[in-house]
Predict the 3D structure of the following.
Amino acid sequence: MLKELIHIVQQAGALLLTARGEKLDVTEKTGPRDLVTQYDTQIQEYLRSALMELLPEAGFLAEEAGFDRPDREKEWVFIVDPIDGTTNFIQGFQDCCVSVALAQRGAVRYGVVYAPFSQELYYAKQGEGAYLGGRRLSAPDRDLAHSLLLFGSGSYYRELVAPSLAIFSAAFPQVQDVRRFGSAALDLCYLAAGRAGVFYECRLCPWDYAAGSLIAREAGVNVTNLKGGELDLWAKDSVLAGTPAAYAAMKALTDRALAERSKT
Ligand code: IPD
Ligand code: CA
């Protein structure tokens, strides 16, 4: 199964590369921060047909289909983001990827994330480790002071500006520095690869984090929502991830920042 998934995701990544030099058809979904291109749609359609041929009994949950077809009763479900980092893709930044997870009864069993511009291929099977190319990943556990903080700005949700910034203000003086790459799936893979120690975003969708969360966990990274609970695979959720020591410090700091805010 993993081999087949990798092949399909790499084919999808190759489609993304054909966009170089092509004119992009950009459509605003809910507004100028929420965009879709013809490549999001085409790649999702390719993935739907290839994945459903691979496992016809599985459900299919994907960004450009939304939550309307939940397929919740099915044992297996593919959770798919045809392009994570669509705004980067449109603006000409290279941090974007194809992200595919296969979950069984609410637990992610396989995750594949492929960034075609950098040709980085991340994958994991539950219980069998995470890999970048052929190299097994093990994220080094550093304290917060020696960790880069990655974050997502939850840009579609005005109501999340204040809590996102409250966490940022509390964390920024404690960490080595911050980075904002624009693809949550890749952020989680970057933690797995040991490039950064912590990541948070106040609201994401399952297709943003399903595959990346397994890859990060299999490399020794803790991944929860901001409350410390299991991530929801059927609804939007927050994400807090980090190597164990950095995660614990970040969780304590986040709890304090959000509690302070609720007093005001
Ligand atoms: C977005 C990216 C981004 C995150 C947004 C996501 P999209 O996904 O993962 O990093 O901050 O919240 O929606 O729209 O590029 O697939
Ligand atoms: Ca996404």
